[in-house]
Amino acid sequence: MIERIKKLLNNDETKQLILYAVFGVLTTLVNWAVYFLLTAILKPENHIKGSFTHAAILNVSNGLGWILSVLFAFITNRKYVFSSESKNTKDKLKEFFLFVSARVLSYFLFDVLGYNLCIYALNLSHSFVKIFMNVLVVVFNYFASRFIVFSKKK
After folding, report:
1. Is 25 helix (H, G, I), strand (E, B) or coil?
2. Nearest partner of 70 among 38, 113, 102, judged by Cα
3. Domain layout of the chain by residue ranges
4. How many angstroms separate the CA atoms of 40 and 100, rounded?
């Protein structure tokens, strides 16, 4: 049994998934920390649900959490998860552009569209929706990073 575990941990794809999961959790914690800190300070519940102020507080908190978590994710994914071998500035900028583009797509699909639909159309709790959307974002972003952003040139 121990030999099977050692063999599994020596597999590059398994290591990559484990590292992605670890840094994904840390990235999510950065996102949540910013979001929940800002919503605790700005108190959207003190405003009428659906009002400009209520929506602004939730969406600004969501957006700032996203920006800081994307920067954290790029650094950790590039260096530790996908071990990018890009050396020149042009290739590094291309990776950053692709990474941010994929994150922008997942942000609008899940953190804006899905988030607001669930809160305002389905009347779900913003805390529950935030957590659920982050799960969807993690899955989407792994595949984008693995197969598009940091794909190894053959």
Report:
1. helix
2. 102
3. 2-149
4. 28
Distances (CA, A) of 64 to 19, 80, 85, 94, 154: 25, 24, 30, 23, 37
Structure token digits, residue 48? 């009428």
143-146: Cβ within 8 A, 24+ apart: 144/102, 144/105, 144/106, 145/20, 145/77, 145/81, 145/82, 145/99, 145/102, 146/16, 146/82
- Does 108 have pLDDT greater than 80? yes
Residue 109 token pair: 């699909």
For residues 116-142, give the mean pLDDT.
Answer: 91
Sequence letter at residue 53: T
**pLDDT by residue (tens digit) across 16-46?**
999 999 998 899 899 999 999 999 999 999 9
